[in-house]
Design goal:
Radius of gyration: 22 Å
Structural class: alpha/beta
Shape: globular
Number of helices: 16
Distance between the termini: 31 Å
Strand order of the largest sheet: 3-4-2-1-5-6-8-7
Length: 406
């Protein structure tokens, strides 16, 4: 039976019609990027009325130009967006949604929680956690946690890379859209042409670059200058500004471009999420960061290098290694470049990184890496879509609650 039919059956049996999603922006675009994709998918594919509470409208507007910066409440598509300014406020049980999701453990307003406890029936309360490949999440996925004072239970829901987790966010039409776009060279050329990339550069190695400010971009640029094949690097405005400014010898504003040796750098504007997907699909190699672009790079089926969000005491290095153990498939050049990009100390203890050698090894393995990325994408598709898995879990809680009342 097609997945869409299963989804419709689940929703027909369920009484869930409303959902509140709370998002505090920590990682600039990753947090709101995930929540905005989730909100739209819940509404568009599942018919759920979503209220998205977000504290940073400036970051939101970067990926969704329709956002009005000074509106307390606004309608974007069929999603209601609330500017989450404060933890204060009183709520009535009638204002509480059927499902309440707090993203990545953000503290939702105490008044909202109090009203959740008074609502009949009580909402399903989900803490949608951050993505990690660490083994322990399989044991914690869907675990309950009782509120210390109120008769409420919160459930932890983990995205992940195995069928013992919630999987990854993936819209039902995404794969078909990608295939159609990548099968049309003219469409890809026209799309990249919007960013000042001429048709004769389409044969170059096309790279998208999205990273945190501490990435060793200048060192990578130096390696690309001497590449045997021309490299065109597309960098969103505001990303790697120091390295791009040094390379261009000018301010890295959208539309700026420059060439040195084999490398051409084009500064492009921030684009809406749908266009960012196309950028990943059109490029041969994608450098991504955080969680949202990291997941979208996997659905692109193209080689990618992940810049993980930094944490105290280098805890992110452990998370990076956990992912590479699952992902790199014994391709040393893929692991080596990923670790160096994240400034993880080399296994041999050497402090100086030979970026030219790292890049040459990765470039030589690119055909193998391309095949591996395609296989990885199919493997991730097999784990199911996070949104469907989430609603299926909610339905199981509803069924269990109904049985207890009988």
């Amino acid at each position: 039976m097609p997945t869409s039919h299963i989804i419709n059956m689940v929703l027909k049996e369920s009484q869930v019609t409303t959902l509140a999603l709370f998002c505090k922006v920590v990682d600039n675009f990753g947090d709101i990027g995930i929540c905005w994709r989730l909100a739209r998918q819940l509404q568009q594919e599942h018919g759920i009325h979503v209220s998205l509470w977000v504290d940073d409208l400036n970051s939101f507007q970067k990926i969704c130009p329709e956002v009005l910066l000074h509106a307390d409440i606004q309608q974007i598509g069929d999603v209601t967006v609330h500017h989450w300014r404060t933890q204060d406020g009183q709520f009535s049980p009638a204002e509480i949604a059927d499902i309440v999701i707090e993203f990545f453990g953000c503290d939702i307003p105490p008044g909202y929680i109090a009203a959740m406890a008074e609502r009949t029936p009580q909402p399903v309360w989900i803490n949608l956690e951050g993505l990690t490949a660490e083994q322990w999440v399989e044991g914690c996925h869907t675990l309950p946690s009782s509120h210390p004072r109120l008769p409420l239970t919160k459930y932890f829901f983990f995205p992940g890379f195995t069928d013992k987790t919630g999987g990854l966010l993936h819209e039902s039409s995404l794969e078909e859209q990608r295939r159609q776009f990548q099968a049309d060279p003219a469409a890809m050329a026209n799309f990249l042409g919007r960013f000042g990339m001429p048709a004769d550069e389409m044969t170059a190695l096309k790279v998208s670059l999205f990273c945190y400010p501490h990435a060793p971009v200048s060192a990578l640029f130096d390696a690309w200058k001497d590449n045997a094949q021309p490299v065109v690097c597309l960098v969103p405005e505001g990303v790697a500004t120091e390295a791009v400014r040094a390379f261009l010898g000018a301010e890295p504003r959208a539309g700026a471009a420059g060439t040195n040796g084999a490398l051409t750098v084009n500064v492009i504007p921030f684009v809406p999420q749908s266009d960012y997907d196309k950028l990943l699909w059109a490029c041969d190699l994608n450098f991504v960061r955080g969680e949202d672009s990291f997941v979208r790079a996997q659905w692109a089926g193209k080689p990618f290098i992940w810049h993980i969000y930094p944490q105290d005491e280098n805890l992110h290095h452990k998370k990076l290694r956990a992912f590479l153990e699952r992902y790199s498939a014994g391709i040393d050049s893929l692991s080596d470049l990923s670790l160096a990009w994240n400034k993880v100390q080399p296994a041999d203890g050497q402090e100086k990184v030979d970026w030219r050698a790292l890049w040459q090894a990765f470039d030589a393995d690119m055909p193998e890496i391309v095949l591996h990325c395609e296989q990885w994408q199919q493997q991730m598709l097999g784990n199911g879509d996070l949104t469907f898995n989430l609603l299926k879990f909610v339905r199981s809680l509803e069924s269990a609650g109904a049985e207890k009342k009988v």
